[in-house]
Write a structure and sequence with these properties.
By secondary structure, this protein is an alpha+beta fold. It has helices at residues 17-21, 24-33, 49-57, 71-79, 99-110, 113-117, 120-137, 142-147, 149-159, 166-177, 186-212, 218-224, 234-265, 267-275, 280-290, 322-325, 329-332, 362-379; strands at 36-38, 44-46, 139-141, 226-227, 230-231, 296-300, 305-307, 310-312, 317-321, 384-385, 390-391, 400-402, 404-406. Belongs to the cytochrome P450 family.
């Protein structure tokens, strides 16, 4: 065993124009040359499907406090911001057992399969309303007309949020999501910290109002959730609600817009899905694989971690390259770089994570993706792009900012 990979000729570099336009050739290069990659910036990256899948299913930490002194810790000190992660470190995404298990047990009391399934008629109605606007205007920006408003509205209605400044909340949650991006820029880190504090206060106020006016909604159910006398504290509740907003809409925006783009760039698959609408659910899985809403996930080693002939030391920050693993030829076959709505094992994509941190909102995201994509194809069989697309400038949460179409 060796603690440092021998080949350092290829270095993960997501900060180029070429990467933002198309990161997949770089991911393929990483898989081929340095599948276990020790970056000069101090972190590690895994890119092969089997390695990434095993990492996600492992019991490694997600808590930032376990990262050993180095570039990441130093960056927080230089910026003068707290090392404590977003939302006071209380969100499920940022916790290890036993805290994670305790909170998940309580949240699942309200976030049930039955409760999520019951939202389908509401989602269908919102999709119809959005596509009516697209039809009336003869097209437009699918991000602004469909991909963004659908999940944002669904989350708000599902929770039963009291009246709130949704435009301001959208801006704040977008900033908080930047906390998953690789950055050591002090100014960016300070902006994220300020947004984190403000969004926490905004949601906290909404929760307090809901306590006074309970209703038949998810937020009331979360407030009432109890297990063996245990309940969510106020701050724990605010953190979970905020994370549902933050993680629940941005990723679905990317799924719907990225899925539509994949169809538009592959007209044979568009025609196939139009001819065989029963393929829609599988097509959504392939969209999640081919153009994933989240490109990386992170873990922190608490003890030496062996992978691919290397030993990663304790206290190391590891990036799981979800997008790269989703196109690994060794797992998916020689057509891994192709978009195929019939792909037999598409559901084994890693875009929702795996193990204890598997995405809590995966079921809802699948429902929204299936209905949005299915109706889009059914209603607009001749849809085509009408201008240049624009990416959102993010690396981990890479997605479209604008997708202009004609119908």
């Amino acid at each position: 065993m060796t603690t440092v990979p021998r080949d350092r000729t290829v270095i993960f570099n997501p900060f180029t124009r070429e990467f933002m336009e198309d990161p997949y050739p770089h991911y393929a290069e990483l898989r081929r040359e340095v599948p276990v990659h020790h970056h000069p910036g101090g972190f590690w990256m895994l890119s092969r499907y089997d390695d990434v899948s095993a990492l996600l299913r492992s019991d490694l930490s997600v808590e930032q406090r376990h990262v050993a002194p180095g570039p990441f810790r130093d960056a927080y000190a230089r910026a003068g911001v707290s090392e404590k992660p977003r939302l006071k470190g209380l969100a499920l995404l940022d916790l290890d057992p036993p805290d994670h298990d305790r909170l998940l047990k309580l949240v699942k009391k309200a976030f049930t399969t039955r409760a999520i399934s019951s939202l389908e008629p509401m989602v269908h109605g919102l999709v119809d309303e959005a596509l009516d606007r697209v039809a009336a205007e003869g097209g437009g920006d699918l991000v602004e007309l469909l991909a963004f408003p659908l999940p944002f509205t669904v989350i708000g209605r599902m929770l039963g949020m009291p009246p709130i400044d949704t435009k301001h909340l959208r801006m704040l949650t977008s900033l908080v999501m930047r906390s998953v991006e690789l950055t050591t820029d002090p100014e960016v880190m300070r902006v994220i910290e300020a947004a984190d504090v403000e969004v926490f206060e905004l949601i906290s106020d909404a929760v307090q109002r809901k306590r006074k006016e309970p209703a038949d909604d998810l937020l009331t159910a979360l407030i009432a959730a109890e297990s063996d006398g245990d309940k969510l504290t106020h701050d724990e509740l605010v953190a979970q609600v905020t994370m549902l907003y933050v993680a629940g809409y941005e990723t679905t925006v990317n799924l719907i817009s990225g899925g539509a783009l994949s169809l538009l760039r592959n007209p044979d698959q568009f025609a196939l899905l139009r001819a065989e609408p029963d393929l829609t659910a599988n097509a959504v899985e392939e969209m999640l694989r081919y153009e994933p809403p989240v490109h990386t996930s992170r873990r922190v080693t608490l003890e030496p971690y062996e992978v691919g002939g290397h030993v990663i030391p304790p206290g190391s920050f590891i990036l799981a390259n979800l997008a790269g693993a989703n196109r690994d030829e060794e797992f998916w076959g020689p057509d891994a770089e192709e978009f195929d709505v019939r792909r037999e094992k598409a559901r084994r994509q890693l875009s929702f994570g795996s193990g204890m941190h598997h995405c809590l909102g995966a079921q809802l995201s699948r429902i929204e993706g299936r209905l949005a994509i299915g109706e889009l194809v059914r209603r607009f069989p001749d849809m085509r792009m009408s201008g240049e697309i624009e990416w959102n400038g993010l690396r981990s949460l890479r997605g479209l900012a604008h997708l202009p179409v004609e119908v």
